[in-house]
Amino acid sequence: MKLIIWLWNPWEKYKNTRHNVWFLFLDFLQEKLNISWEFEEISKFKAKILETNISWEKTLLVKPQTFMNLSGEAVLKIMSFYKIEKKDIIVIFDDISLEPWKVRFRESWSAGWQNGVKSIIANIWEDFKRIKIGIGQDKRWDLADWVLSKFSEEEWEKLQKETFLEVYELLLKNL
């Protein structure tokens, strides 16, 4: 079984922000896989989970329902319950150190500035697959305000036409 985790903040006020870029990817993925999203909220995991098949692999899609900075709690509980090994998880998140829309795959790396990844490392160790999308950093903005800002129409189009397709291909290749 594979486990794909989106790091995000699940509250309405964070919807469509740079920090939640991977949540926006779910709509794209839903269309590509031609499946509906009916995530089951499981309070003991502090997460919403959807069980599906991707490339003939039984896969759990997970949206932690904690603040991003506490994502590791949900990941550890789910991995323990389903007996999923670290090599079978992919964590998807935004990265301010990458240029906007650049995508990077890593098998292991430091958390950098990303507190959600820091939380996962603290709970399960650092050897897990990651897909990062660059959101850059506009130095004219306070960092918190920047990552919680919304995309322009032009940025949104680029995400859908280029970046999300690249992420989708990386997922299929690395499951």
Task: Please give a structural write-up.
The protein is of the alpha/beta class and 175 residues long. Helix content is 35%, strand content 23%. A seven-stranded mixed beta sheet has the order 2-3-4-1-5-7-6, sandwiched between helices. The longest helix has 22 residues, at 153-174. It is globular and about 45 Å long.
Key structural traits:
175 residues, alpha/beta, Rossmann fold, 35% helix, 23% strand
Explain briefly what this protein structure is:
The chain has 175 residues and is of the alpha/beta class. It has a single domain, classed as Peptidyl-tRNA hydrolase (Rossmann fold, 3-Layer(aba) Sandwich).
- Share in helix: 25-40%
The CATH homologous superfamily is called Peptidyl-tRNA hydrolase
Judged by helices, strands and strand pairing, the structural class is alpha/beta
Number of helices: 5
**Coarse morphology:** globular
Strand content: 15-25%
The CATH architecture can be named as 3-Layer(aba) Sandwich
CATH topological fold name: Rossmann fold
What is the C-alpha radius of gyration, as a whole number of Å? 15 Å
Query: Tell me, what is the CATH class?
Result: Alpha Beta
Low-confidence stretches: none
Q: N-to-C terminal Cα separation, in Å?
A: 10 Å
Count of all domains: 1
- Could you describe the largest sheet, including whether it forms a barrel? 7 strands, mixed
In N-to-C order, the SSE pattern is EHEEEHEEHEHH
Number of strands: 7
Mean pLDDT: 83
Trace the largest sheet across and list its strands: 2-3-4-1-5-7-6
Layout: helices, strands, pairs:
Blueprint (H helix, E strand, L loop, with lengths): L1 E5 L14 H13 L6 E3 L4 E8 L2 E8 L6 H12 L6 E7 L7 E4 L8 H10 L4 E6 L8 H5 L5 H22 L1
Parallel strand pairs: 1-4, 1-5, 5-7
Antiparallel strand pairs: 2-3, 3-4, 6-7
